[in-house]
Amino acid sequence: MPNKALVVGVSGITGSNLAEKLLAEEWTVYGLARNPQAELNGMIPIAADLLSKDSLNIALSELSFTHVFITSWMRQETEAENIRVNSLMVRNLLNAVSPKKTVQHVALVTGLKHYLGPFEAYAKAGTWPLTPVREEHPRLAIENFYYAQEDEVYAAAERDGFSWSVHRPHTVIGKAVGNMMNMGTTLAVYASICKETGRPFQFPGSAAQWNGLSDVTDARILAKQLIWAATTAAARNQAFNIANGDVFRWNWLWQELADWFGIEARGFDGSLHPLEGQLSTDELLWADIAAKYNLKEAKLDRLASAWHTDLDLSRPIEVMTDMAKSRKLGFTAYQNTRESFFDLFTKLREEKLIP
Questions:
Q1: Which pLDDT value is given to residue 123?
Q2: 20 to 30 A Cα–Cα from 25, which one of 4, 77, 318, 345?
Q3: ω into residue 2 within 30 of 0, thus cis?
Q4: Which residues form the PRISE-like Rossmann-fold domain (predicted)?
Q5: What average pLDDT does this structure show over 16-43?
Q6: Residue ranges per domain, the chain?
C-alpha cells in the first residue's frame, strides 16, 4: 500500500510543516483539524472534532492510512483536565482508524514538559532534571498529560499491531497562525511593536535563561525526524528528543534578533518583564499596525502566544536536549538556530503577517 499519511493538527506549526514535507516527498497527505487550512497544494483536508467519536467516524469511515502523525493538543485549566481531554483525543482518533487495520505506524509529538513537568509545576524545584535531558530519564512522579497520551498510543499499538514513535521537541520555531505555543512569531510581533512605537526590545525572562545554554527545534527538522522514524526500522517503538543540533545563549542571540528588526535590544536587568504584561494592552495597537501595513492578521492573539514564551524564557534552569539516541541510529539532520528565526521572520514578512 502506498504511503498515506494522516496529519492530525495540520493547522499548527508542527502539522503544517510536516504536511508540506510529506507532500514534497510524494506522500498522499490528509490533514485533519477542526478547520483545516487549504493553503497546501495537494493536501486533502479533513474537518473533524477529536473530542467527538461521531465526528471522527463520519470523517474517517471511508478512508484508510498507513501512517498517523499526532501533533495536536488542547490546553485546559488544570492538568487533570489536560489529561482527560488530551488522552480522549488520542483514544478517539486511534479507535476511529482501527477498523481498517491499515495503520503501520503512529507518531506522537509531545515535548520537554515530559522532563520539566506540566504547566502547573513547570520547571519548579523538585522536578528539575539533569541536563541535557535524555530519553532514558524516568517519568516524573507527577500527573502529566504527555504520559497519558503516550499510554493511549501504547495501548492501541498493542491492540492493532502498529509501530510507534514519540518525539520530544524543545520550543518549536515555525510559522502558524492561531497556534497556542509560538515563540518565534510572538517575538516577531513583539519586535514589530517595539519598532513601531520606539520601545526597547526588552528580554522578558530569567537570569538562568539569559546566561545559560539553550536550544530550540525548527519545525522543519522536526518534520524530518518524524518521517525518518516512521520509515526506519531501527527507530520503531522508541521515543526521541529532537532539537536543531546547536546551542546558544539568549544573551547574544537577543541582540541578533533585535538587529534583524533594526531596534534597540535590552537584556536581563535583574527582573522579569513578562510579555503577557507588555502586550496585554496592545490589541488595538496591533489592529492599527495591521491596517497601516495591510497585514493579513489584525488580531494580536492569533499571532502571539505570550504566556508560552514567558513560560519558556522565565525558567530558573538552563535546558538543553541530548540528541545522541537518534544520531546513533542514523538521524543526522542539522539546522542553524539563527536561520530558524531569520527564515521565519522573512516568511512572516513576505506573507504580510508582520510589517
A1: 66
A2: 345
A3: no
A4: 66-355
A5: 92
A6: 4-169, 179-215+247-317+336-351
Residue with cell 471522527: 56
In what helix (H) or strand (E) does residue 54 lie, and over which residues does it extend? helix 53-60
- The residue behind cell 474537518 is 47
Q: Which residues are catalytic?
A: 113, 146
Whole-model pTM above 0.85? yes
pLDDT for the residue 66: 98
pLDDT digits (tens, 9 = 90+) for 116-144: 988 777 767 677 788 999 999 999 989 99
Residue 271 CA to residue 207 CA, distance in Å, equals 8
Interval 293-311: pLDDT, tens: 999 999 999 999 999 999 9
- What are phi and psi for residue 301, nearest 5 degrees? -75, -5
Question: What does the buried/exposed string (b/e) look like for 246-255 if buried means 16 or more CB atoms within 10 Å of the residue's CB?
Answer: ebbebeeebb
Amino acid, res. 171: T
Are 140 and 127 in contact, with CB atoms under 8 Å apart?
yes
Cβ partners under 8 Å of residue 118, min gap 6: 79, 82, 142, 143, 144, 145, 146
- On whether the CB atoms of residues 32 and 9 are closer than 8 A, the answer is yes
Number of C-beta neighbours around residue 269 at 10 A: 11
